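tokens incoming
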């Protein structure tokens, strides 16, 4: 039994923040250094029991939570319960150089259990690792310096000849059906070049940003590709604490409104708008992917919203520097209730102490600069893990709320519904109800068949305009339509197009009555279809009754939306927007409403 210490230093051209997402992705780094896959056996008090997935030799350990500070440091401690090692600690630091580059210092402390461990350490770490690490960190440096995505690490080609042929055939079919050619070409390159870790969880918005293509176009193309058998679609339920994947489902009907995170040991509720994300993988006929394989069960990159996670011993202080984006943050200590709100902005405080004692936190909101020097002060009698969490969720998640309000999703995946009786919050949604004015008189004046043709044409115009603005027709009720949008301004743009098109077609021209409201909803399964329920629905459904035709009636929530105000300022006729107050059946108080000619 012996103790060993290894230290390697590498001078790199890229900055610490440019390197961070590569260097701190220990799942990818362990794979790149040739370590075997790992398996998580269990979690107790945030300590993970892990083993290598290798035959004959049992190597098993308890892994403490990672510590890190973006973009300057991360470390990990493992205590082995089986195998040739006793303990290993890793510490990686990134120091900013005067030339803008980085000095990366990588240290490992490891203890052997027996002679096999001694031999393995001297050969595997002492001789092999230094060369491997130099090659990998220099590769990461080249990628970071060019600004390439992480999947550029892969150098091989991953589509088989049969997978290549199937993709090309399906791609041509999709292009003939109107799918976006640029998205499909980028998708082919991605599936051909990207490694397994990159294609395990394909996020359409993140890829759209990398490819510099419209997000909705990429998402809609992925939905088409799923229907064609090129991709498979899954629903990830994200934990609100660690924001990791608590559960994943192949169908919406498998999703429950209540969930549990094994890592955080908390119960939470599903919310279409916040923590249900659609992701994609290649269909096995195009490319086989082992979506269970992982080379590290913890990593700073598994929680990129956590800026730092640092352990401070009892009655001690820990000073360090970090980097922040402008915005609001929440600082928590693991053993205490409550949190400290932090606001970061360019002119914020450069040096800031954060103190916690047995009674918790004592300040309201504290400000810091974007490159603050921080001291964590633990005045309790136990060690505390301090974590600074960015409160803004990533906008690169294509949420269930985004997907289910797309007309193409409703058209291609009409069977994707919740299980009967399940009710899930969908956050705030824009709901639009329309109805034809004097449709009964239309049937009487021009006859049943011509009138029915005009009404059916009006449905087609509505569906086309709603889909063009990223919305979806939820259902029709006689001559009436219910539609949903993610953004208020999308509903205004859609109805503007609809009325103009109706005026252009046929005599007499059709006019519609419109009501629009924005607010929280519940999504349910109604008659084997995703539908919405709640006060927002009830209000929106009553608003068309106040329209005289060719008018949109909308609530204060719509009127006060900045994008709606900007659109109306450019497109509405002068003095065409009027305010009035009215009572709605079923509601106690009168509502402030707005009327506009469209």
């Amino acid at each position: 039994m012996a103790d060993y210490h290894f230290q390697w230093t590498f001078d790199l051209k890229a900055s610490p923040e440019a390197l961070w997402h590569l260097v701190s992705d220990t799942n990818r780094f362990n794979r790149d250094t040739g370590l075997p896959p790992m398996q998580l056996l269990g979690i107790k008090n945030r300590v993970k029991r892990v083993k290598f997935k290798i035959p004959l030799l049992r190597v098993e350990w308890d892994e403490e939570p990672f510590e890190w500070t973006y973009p300057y440091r991360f470390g990990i401690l493992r205590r082995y319960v089986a195998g040739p090692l006793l303990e290993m600690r890793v510490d990686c630091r990134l120091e900013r150089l005067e030339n803008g580059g980085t000095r990366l210092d990588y240290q490992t402390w490891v203890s052997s259990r027996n002679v096999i461990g001694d031999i393995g350490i001297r050969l595997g770490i002492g001789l092999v690792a230094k060369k491997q690490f130099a090659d990998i960190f220099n590769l990461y440096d080249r990628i970071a310096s060019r600004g390439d995505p992480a999947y550029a690490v892969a150098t091989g080609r991953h589509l088989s000849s049969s997978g290549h042929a199937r993709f090309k055939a399906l791609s041509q079919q999709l292009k003939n059906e109107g799918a976006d050619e640029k998205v499909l070409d980028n998708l082919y390159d991605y599936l051909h070049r990207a490694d397994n870790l990159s294609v395990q969880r394909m996020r359409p918005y993140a890829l759209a940003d990398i490819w510099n293509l419209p997000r909705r176009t990429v998402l809609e193309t992925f939905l088409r590709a799923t229907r064609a058998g090129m991709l498979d679609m899954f629903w990830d339920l994200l934990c609100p604490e660690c924001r990791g994947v608590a559960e994943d489902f192949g169908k919406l009907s498998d999703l429950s409104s209540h969930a549990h995170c094994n890592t955080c040991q908390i119960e939470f509720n599903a919310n279409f708008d916040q923590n249900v994300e659609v992701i994609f993988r290649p269909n096995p006929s195009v490319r086989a992917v082992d979506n269970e394989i992982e080379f590290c069960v913890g990593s700073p990159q598994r929680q990129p919203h956590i800026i730092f996670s640092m352990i401070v011993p009892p009655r001690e202080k820990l000073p360090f520097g970090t980097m922040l984006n402008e915005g609001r943050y929440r600082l928590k200590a693991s053993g205490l209730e409550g949190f400290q709100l932090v606001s970061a902005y360019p002119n914020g405080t450069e040096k800031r102490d954060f103190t916690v004692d047995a009674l918790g936190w004592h300040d309201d909101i504290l400000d810091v600069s974007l490159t603050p020097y921080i001291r964590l002060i633990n005045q309790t009698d136990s060690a505390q893990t301090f974590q600074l969490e960015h409160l803004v969720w990533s906008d690169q998640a294509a949420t269930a709320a985004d997907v289910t309000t797309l007309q193409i999703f409703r058209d291609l995946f009409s069977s994707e519904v919740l299980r009967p009786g399940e009710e899930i919050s969908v956050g705030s949604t824009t709901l639009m109800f329309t109805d034809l004015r004097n449709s009964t008189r239309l049937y009487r004046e021009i006859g049943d068949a011509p009138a029915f043709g005009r009404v059916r044409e009006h449905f087609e115009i509505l569906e086309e305009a709603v889909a063009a603005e990223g919305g979806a027709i939820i259902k029709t009720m006689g001559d009436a339509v219910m539609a949903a949008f993610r953004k208020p301004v999308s509903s205004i743009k859609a109805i503007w197009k609809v009325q103009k098109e109706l005026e252009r077609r046929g005599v007499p021209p059709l006019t519609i009555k419109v009501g629009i409201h924005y607010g929280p909803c519940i999504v349910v399964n109604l008659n084997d279809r995703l539908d919405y329920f709640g006060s927002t629905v009830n209000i929106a459904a009553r608003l068309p009754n106040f329209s005289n035709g060719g008018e949109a009636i909308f609530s204060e929530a719509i009127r006060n939306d900045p994008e709606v105000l900007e659109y109306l300022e450019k497109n509405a006729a002068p003095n065409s927007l009027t305010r009035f107050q009215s009572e709605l059946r079923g509601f106690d108080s009168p509502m402030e409403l707005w009327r506009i000619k469209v």
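note: The first strand starts at residue 3 and ends at 12.
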